[in-house]
Amino acid sequence: MYKVTLSMPVYNVEKYVERALLSALNQTFESIEYLIVDDKGTDNSMDIIRRIIATHPRGKNVRIIDHGINQGTGATKNSAIREAKGEYLYFMDSDDEITQDCIEILYNKMQENPVDFVVGSIIMHFDDYSKENEQNEGIIKKIFSENILKGKNKIAEFQYDRKNVKNSIHIQMWNKLYNLNFLINYQIDCIPHHLNEDNMFTTKLIFTAISCSFTSQVTYYYYKNRNSVTYICSLGFTKRIADQYIEIYSFHKENLLNYKNTILYNNYYYWILHYIFGLLPLYYKGYFDENQKGMYYKEITRNLPRKITEISKLPIRGIIYLIYLSLPYKITKFIYKFWRYLKRQNIRIFHN
């Protein structure tokens, strides 16, 4: 039995997949099973993978799961959870890269203090970044403090603490080592049809897990890929993505009700308002007509708690978000466009 299963979904990444796969195969840690989930892209990604594993010493440890037809990123992660034979499971994207000692670091951290999952530190590359030049302006380092969280709701309280934003757990599924039995026993998985599969998975993880640990050691290099779902979404939502985010908002609004009269409630509600407010521009820029945008807006803002007792402890900014989200769609879009105009003119209204 393998100690760790490393899973990598593959879909139209021929430009990046060799770098990603070699970083996975060249790990210092020995007991790794590799799951390559072929989500039936149209380029030469799988040919590149087969060429590499045919000659690599660890090729015998690679298993290819053929999806038959394209099913989406959520389904690829569910396939990995279902098929993994390791004690622990690690996800990486096929356009990124992991450090040579990534799995060894995370596994050793898990053995020191067994937890539901371990989180590694990250370097995110957004421009012409290379690992050899980490002084480039186009990078963001997310370095966690060495830390262990244990107890019911402790991870959620940590995640949604307004004073702890810089240390919050990244929503992406990658660069975490999961106890596979924990994921299976508590049915922590993805919505199969979702392209933004990370969001719901990690949210369920945060509210279900009762223990996790962090390492300050960098184990993952994220590369911004202009063909990725994340980048395409940042330009404006398609109807498919817009519908999926409605599901996400609905989950959070319903989940919030479970935490009334707890210390988690106010911070979690503020996070929901901030999250909705931050993503509204992607609906404004969406690839659908104004009537549909208005309907989405109504659905997004429906059932937000508005009673005095429910909002009295929100910070001022949270109250502003709620007031904004109580306005008619056309007024909010006008305010947004006016704010964009002021920003282009270099006129600052709010200071962080």
From TrEMBL:
Keyword Cell wall biogenesis/degradation part of the UniProt annotation: no
Pfam families linked: Glycos_transf_2
EC number(s) from the headed UniProt entry: 2.4.-.-
Acetylation is among the record's keywords: no
Transmembrane segments: 268-288
InterPro entries named in the record: Glyco_trans_2-like, Nucleotide-diphossugar_trans
GO terms assigned for molecular function: hexosyltransferase activity
Matches recorded under Gene3D superfamilies: Spore Coat Polysaccharide Biosynthesis Protein SpsA, Chain A
Glycosyltransferase 2-like domain boundaries: 8-138
Name by which UniProt lists this protein: Putative glycosyltransferase EpsH
